[in-house]
């Protein structure tokens, strides 16, 4: 490592850090299993250094140097990923994108904006809000994630039902390849110039290139925003109501259906026991919002719903991004995580019931619950939460893995997709062959071998071992 560190210091000076605190902080993301292992005295290995380039040209130079020496590089935004895409190793350097921040360009006429990939999501949203725009992307992690991270994980926001996911909201990206070459795609609303090269890097988790800039197609801030809430006798009827609304052509940005366990937890004063709460948020021109509210309300009531206080939606807005730290549960001997998956409408009820049943059978499980978080004309995402308390601390990791295996097994049995928006990282990597097939994973490996022949970019994440 001494040779590459000397090269990096010669050019970047004190922006190459070998301070232990810095290396420890950048050797992991927010994966529950990494946090669990650390709480049990098994922290991830520390990286050799943290490198902080100031612009794309420096990113290009750093990657070229690391590629020439075969030094592994771990791209790092803000470390908010929850699937273990970032795990340190002593022969690797972390490439921090914290120096590539800020609004680079805003075009009001074309409603576009471009940001450095290290820009915090909430900062990007605030930057366009002053000109009357929104990104339309509101993940729970908006305050602790970067716009480049959204691309790298193929992210989805809480308002996606109307505005789409990150692949629908970006216009262009700039990416630095493993050998230092820079790719910039065109800033256009759509193109038919062969395969869409952006798609190679959406969801690639830093294994195929390092995203350095991201361009967005902006949305005018809505004239009107309103919410309404209902409760249903069960998840099946609530899912039917969402499907009916979306297939009728209505496009509320938020449609969230909570099962009875989560409804009682989140809305104890507004949702009766053993009922499933469904929240809608409507945005757009005031006249359209009024019509949509009436139509959606009518369809929900036709499918067995009863109205809830509109303040339920206000409560959700106030508390939607609050997350308790993992450690507060580990101290009580409890392991937990969230698992988001997806499927078509005809399989959604079965997937919900089968995943809850399978995970509940894992020894020590305290609860399994779910909500429908993102929906489409042809299907939905189900977001599961499990808590388990095994007999002793030595069984905590195995209990965690068993719960994941139970939900992944249910997805496989029903015919869903193993990830909707959190990505693959390491926690899902072992299930990717079953999802994509040998041909699909082989193709992914082939792309990797062409773009990163020395395998320096984020080794161990996403792509299963051959």
Annotation, overall tally of beta strands: 18
* Low-confidence runs: none
Share of helix, binned: 25-40%
- The total number of structural domains is 4
Largest sheet: spatial strand order: 15-12-14-13-17-18-16
What best-fitting shape do the alpha-carbon axes yield? Answer: globular
Q: Specify Rg, calculated over alpha carbons.
A: 23 Å
> In CATH's first tier, which class of the largest domain applies?
Alpha Beta
The biggest sheet amounts to: 7 strands, antiparallel
The proportion of strand residues reads 15-25%
Alpha-carbon distance between the two ends: 27 Å
Q: How many individual helices?
A: 17
Average pLDDT across residues? 97
What does this structure look like?
With 466 residues, the chain is of the alpha+beta class. It has 4 domains: 2-96, 2-Layer Sandwich (Uridine Diphospho-n-acetylenolpyruvylglucosamine Reductase, domain 2), CATH 3.30.43; 103-220, 2-Layer Sandwich (Uridine Diphospho-n-acetylenolpyruvylglucosamine Reductase, domain 3), CATH 3.30.465; 224-319, Alpha-Beta Plaits (2-Layer Sandwich); 327-421, GMP Synthetase, Chain A, domain 3 (2-Layer Sandwich). The protein is built from 17 helices and 18 strands. The chain has helices at 2-12, 20-25, 32-39, 56-69, 121-129, 147-153, 160-163, 166-169, 198-201, 235-247, 260-266, 286-302, 311-319, 327-330, 348-360, 396-414, 432-451; strands spanning 16-17, 49-51, 73-76, 93-96, 103-107, 112-116, 133-134, 170-176, 182-184, 210-217, 219-220, 224-232, 254-258, 276-284, 306-308, 335-344, 365-376, 379-388. The strands form 4 sheets. It has a 7-stranded antiparallel beta sheet with strand order 15-12-14-13-17-18-16, sandwiched between helices. A 5-stranded antiparallel beta sheet has the order 5-6-10-8-9. The protein has a 4-stranded mixed beta sheet with strand order 1-2-4-3. Strand 5 and strand 6 (112-116) form a beta hairpin. The longest helix has 20 residues, at 432-451.
């Amino acid at each position: 490592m001494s040779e590459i560190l000397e090269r990096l210091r010669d050019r970047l000076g004190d922006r190459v850090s070998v301070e232990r605190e810095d290396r420890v902080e950048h050797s992991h993301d927010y994966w529950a299993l990494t946090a669990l292992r650390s709480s049990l005295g098994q922290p991830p290995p520390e990286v050799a250094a943290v490198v902080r380039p100031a612009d794309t040209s420096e990113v290009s130079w750093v990657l070229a140097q690391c590629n020439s020496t075969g030094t592994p590089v771990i791209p790092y935004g803000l470390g908010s990923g929850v699937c273990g895409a970032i795990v340190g190793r002593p022969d690797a350097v972390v490439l921090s994108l914290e120096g590539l921040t800020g609004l680079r360009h805003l075009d009001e006429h074309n409603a576009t904006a471009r940001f450095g990939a290290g820009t915090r999501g909430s900062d990007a949203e605030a930057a366009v809000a002053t000109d009357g725009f929104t990104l339309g992307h509101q993940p729970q992690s908006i305050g602790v994630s970067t716009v480049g991270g959204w691309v790298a994980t193929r992210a989805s926001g809480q308002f996606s039902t109307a505005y789409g996911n990150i692949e629908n909201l970006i216009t262009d990206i700039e990416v630095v390849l493993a050998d230092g070459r820079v790719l910039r795609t065109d800033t256009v609303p759509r193109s038919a110039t062969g395969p869409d090269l952006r798609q190679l890097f959406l969801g690639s988790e830093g294994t195929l290139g390092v995203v350095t800039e991201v361009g967005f197609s902006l949305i005018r801030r809505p004239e009107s925003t309103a919410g309404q809430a209902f409760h249903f006798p069960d998840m099946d009827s609530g899912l039917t109501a969402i499907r009916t609304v979306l297939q009728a052509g209505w496009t509320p940005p938020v449609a969230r259906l909570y099962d009875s366990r989560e409804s009682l937890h989140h809305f104890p004063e507004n949702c009766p026991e053993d009922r499933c709460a469904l929240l809608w948020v409507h945005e757009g021109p005031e006249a359209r919002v009024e019509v949509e509210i009436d139509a959606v309300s009518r369809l929900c009531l036709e499918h067995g719903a009863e109205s809830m206080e509109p303040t339920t939606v206000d409560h959700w807005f106030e508390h939607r991004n609050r997350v308790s730290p993992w450690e507060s549960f580990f101290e009580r001997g409890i392991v937990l995580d969230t698992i988001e998956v997806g499927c078509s409408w005809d399989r959604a009820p079965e997937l919900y019931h089968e995943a809850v049943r399978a995970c509940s059978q894992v020894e020590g499980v305290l609860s399994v619950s779910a909500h429908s978080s993102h929906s489409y004309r042809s299907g939905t995402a189900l977001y599961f939460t499990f808590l388990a308390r095994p007999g002793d601390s030595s069984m905590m990791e195995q209990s965690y893995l068993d719960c994941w295996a139970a939900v992944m097994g249910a997805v496989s049995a029903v015919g869903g997709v193993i990830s909707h928006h959190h990505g693959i990282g390491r926690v899902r990597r072992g299930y990717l062959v079953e999802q994509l097939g040998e041909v699909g994973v082989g193709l992914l490996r082939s792309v990797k071998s062409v773009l990163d022949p020395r395998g320096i970019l984020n080794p161990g994440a996403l792509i299963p071992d051959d």
